[in-house]
Amino acid sequence: MKKISIYFILGILVLSTLAFVKTESKKTKTINMKPDVEALLVSKSYTLQIAEAMPADKYTFRPTDSVRSFGEQMAHISTSTKFLVDLFVKGQPMPSQEDFAAAAKMEKEMGASKEACIKALTEAYDMVATTYENMSDEQLAETFVVPFDPAQPSFPREKAFQFISEHNAHHRGQALVALRMQGIKSPAYKLY
Known about the structure:
Elements: H1 2-28, H2 37-53, H3 70-89, H4 97-111, H5 114-133, H6 137-141, E1 143-145, E2 154-156, H7 157-181
Antiparallel strand pairs: 1-2
Helix pairs in contact: 2-5, 2-7, 3-4, 3-5, 3-7
């Protein structure tokens, strides 16, 4: 009889533990999908520090003929950010080849002006932050298709902001190389 009582008590303990774990796992499965706007603001600050570090008369410096100038990198970050938000978040159609050619021409022109680049970068980052903040978890969970990938993969809109961040980091890194090639001390990296 004593053995049965012990097994009974152990059974109740196991069942109550399982019930507790199930209840807890249901509580922790609620995920806040809202992107980290603070990380975006750190990226904005770091990018603007890099843009400020290059003297205005060096914005047309090109490390080699086959790459964008420093200013064109800064201009590209701002114009491509808007393009990616339009395409991935707002669901606008893929631009035409003429649109891309016009954007490249605009990046060349804007890239020659430190003032124009800093203004455009500020506006682009602010637009992304506002877009982040105004999206609900449901909107972030909606999917988009990557139209320029032949496989046409789809992702939740939340992932679009990660793509934008990665793209900006890629071009910011190229701008850092140009800055260093000019003998200018680059701003310290900001992780947070």
